[in-house]
Design a protein that fits this description.
Protein-Tyrosine Phosphatase, Chain A; alpha/beta; 8-stranded mixed sheet; UDP-N-acetylmuramoyl-L-alanine:D-glutamate ligase; 6-stranded mixed sheet; 15 helices; 2 domains
Length: 434
């Protein structure tokens, strides 16, 4: 048994060596041995390519505003490992991680010796979260973010009150498939028999697959752009203002404090989910709670201003769709400013299209790398660049410190790319520089 938090965390992370092992049999085996805690929690399941974390945050904030205790299960983390399992935004404590790891380890040891094989890091943490929300810190609701795909994701053992699929993009193609239809099929795997699904998917091929899967499961479906509509959108100094119309109600002049037109889409999905939960008698949350929750919602590393003078922004744009949203926002919100982008990414991303799009909306780019197994080197990133204003730096910490200290008026420093990099950069910037 583990004696300290650090021992437990080392063991959890060591299971990364097992990689990604799609399938639910190991999770089902562990849940049965634990007394099926996943059946004791009221859940909402949120999948998709981009916007999952923001949508989780909006919905959590709405439910909190209505007075409920809300567990959230998200990945990856931005500030600390413990935040992956949180209640009302407060991460699980070190002592609770120790307790949970000691609950799961004997089961993992047994699985290690079985035909099913040992559980992955993600499976272990997912199992811990179910025990936490059901027994250690019982909650009114738990909002679960899909880790990868959906159909075979560890979280897919739950039966939610409602499912949400934010959008579908070409990410993780080596695992999920290389067409929108194939990836949508994996995402739509979270749709359960008769359970409503809310989706922000816009790509026609992907949307048709989700509609087909919902029909096959006799699941009502609410689609952004059809049953759910956004209108009267305008940018504010600190976020977005917009109107949402759904089959349940129309809400005018909603405000969010998270920047980007894409956040209006994420927020509208969360609003519709809350409205459905109210309509079905699961919650008591009216217009006041929805407005309050949306405005209070905050998710770090999503077009986050970590400094206003000089202007330093963090954004975890880690795939094609994320880069496109970021590029559009730079063009519309920051026109007239000079933009210096610092970019780090993982090797398995579509780096050519991501880098070339960033070059269109920046004045210069600096490529860096960071300590992560799948991180692309700064040299590899620079080799893809077409811009004469691009360069690379091997020590991103020293570079950022010098760049921020010497920033000139009228410039914006935007640190973007892998969420794993954003996590490291955010901590360093807030603790050491800003």
């Amino acid at each position: 048994m583990f004696q300290t938090y650090d021992e437990a965390l080392t063991w959890i992370h060591a299971r990364l060596r097992l990689g990604i092992k799609p399938g639910l049999k190991r999770m089902e085996w562990m849940m049965e041995r634990l007394g099926n805690p996943e059946r004791k929690v009221k859940t909402i399941h949120i999948g998709g390519t981009n916007g999952k974390g923001s949508t989780v945050t909006f919905l959590r904030s709405i439910l909190e505003a209505a007075g409920y205790s809300v567990g959230t299960y998200t990945s990856p983390y931005i500030e600390s490992f413990n935040e992956r399992i949180s209640v009302n935004g407060t991460p699980v404590t070190d002592g609770e991680i120790l307790e949970l790891a000691n609950r799961i380890k004997p089961l993992a040891d047994e699985l290690d010796q079985s035909e099913l094989g040992g559980p992955t890091e993600f499976e272990v943490i997912t199992a811990m979260s179910f025990v936490y929300f059901a027994e250690v810190r019982p909650v009114d609701f738990a909002v679960y973010e899909v880790g990868l795909g959906g159909r075979f994701d560890s979280t897919n053992i739950l039966t939610p009150l409602v499912s949400v699929i934010t959008n579908v993009g070409l990410d993780h193609i080596s695992i999920l498939g290389d067409t929108y239809g194939e990836i949508a099929f994996e995402k739509a795997g979270i749709i359960k028999e008769g359970i409503p699904v809310i989706t922000g998917t816009q790509h026609p091929e992907a949307l048709s697959v989700i509609i087909e899967q919902a029909a096959g499961k006799h699941s009502p479906i609410y689609k952004l752009g059809e049953e759910i509509r956004i209108s009267a959108h305008e940018k504010t100094s600190k976020g977005e203002k917009f109107t949402v119309s759904s089959p349940f109600a129309k809400l005018d002049n909603l405000e969010v404090s998270m920047i980007g037109v894409h956040q209006t889409a994420n927020a509208s999905l969360a609003v519709t989910a809350a409205q459905f939960l109210k309509e079905s008698g699961q919650i008591k949350a009216g217009e006041v709670e929805i407005r309050t929750g949306l405005k209070k919602a905050f998710w770090p590393g999503r077009l986050e201003f970590v400094s206003n003078n000089p202007v330093v922004i963090l954004d975890g744009a880690h795939n094609t769709e994320g880069i496109e949203s970021l590029a559009n926002e730079l063009s519309s919100r920051f026109s007239g400013k000079k933009v210096h982008i610092v970019f780090a990414a993982l090797k398995d991303k579509p780096l050519d299209s991501m880098i070339h799009r960033l070059e269109e909306v920046s004045d210069k780019i600096t490529f860096v790398s960071f300590d992560f197994p799948r991180a692309a080197s700064a040299s590899e990133l620079l080799a893809i660049s077409r811009s004469p204003e691009s360069r690379k730096e091997d020590d991103w910490k020293t570079f950022l410190k010098g760049e921020i200290n010497g920033m000139q008026e009228g410039w914006i420093l935007l640190v973007t790319g892998s969420l794993y990099f954003i996590s490291e950069a955010r901590k360093y910037l807030l603790e050491k520089i800003l």
